[in-house]
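re the bet — no i am not wrong, look at it urself. input seq straight from the record:
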Amino acid sequence: MGDLRRCDRYLPKRGAYIVFSPSFTRRGPLINISREGLSCIYYVNDTLDARSLDTCVNIRYGNFFLGSLPFRIISDKRIGTGRFGPFKMVRQRSLIFEALSVGQVVQVDYFIQNFTRLKYDFLEGPSAYR
């Protein structure tokens, strides 16, 4: 199943990452973000079940923290293996935000406006801000 987000995707600045909660064991770099959801890579130990019971995602970039965003998983696939410290499996997850509060919507917009570097349309390829 492909990524179902309809909004434009934005590429985050280098160093933006996600942490899933409440387990806080799944974390990794943010690939892209839109007003509807995001895509990320995360690392897990191969003994850890990749099917997550996590209910929220947190986004961090420098001193900025956007927490407790509820989501629904669209896709979650294994994309590689390797030695990443204690982690042995690399996965990619795409998700859609669900039931965001007005404050969370404002924070997602703030993150997009201040911590992304390029607007990205998957059908047309990278483009400059309009």
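see?? The chain has one helix and nine strands. told u. also Confidence is low (pLDDT under 50) at residues 126-130. so pay up
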